Amino acid sequence: MKNLGLFCLLLACIGFESCKNDQAQKDAAIAKAQAEKPVSTACYKALYESDTINLTINTLKNGKITGDMVMKIENMPDKIGKIAGEFRGDTLFADYSFIQGTNEKVKFKNPMAFLKHGSELNLGSGKIETYLGKSYFVKGTPIEFEKVKYKFTTVDCAAEQQ
Question: What is the pTM of this model?
Fold first, then answer.
């Protein structure tokens, strides 16, 4: 009976280690994608009351999207980070990895969805759940793109840098 318990513990450890390796491979793929030279770059800005979000989107040769986003929300520390994802139809699904304020030791990662309307992007809101440390939109639950706070308009990338 004691050997059976050790065997089960060993299998669980192997399973957790393989999940860790899979995440490391995904992180390496994201880093490689970010190192690629973009085919095109677009810059966006969203304003809502006293909130401002600046977004830069780089489209890579393989169709993947990378970029930077800075969220300045009233009465909250700034969120500064990177996005990585891809368009599915007219919707950009991306993960936003960011730090909040000056605390660079704690990193957050949230899923985001942007619906493209001509030259505008609407930041969608939907039900998010977390499973095994990964957050994602709940399947089968619609993402709201019409009644949203943040509607991004295109801006000159040189002007956004300032």
Answer: 0.71
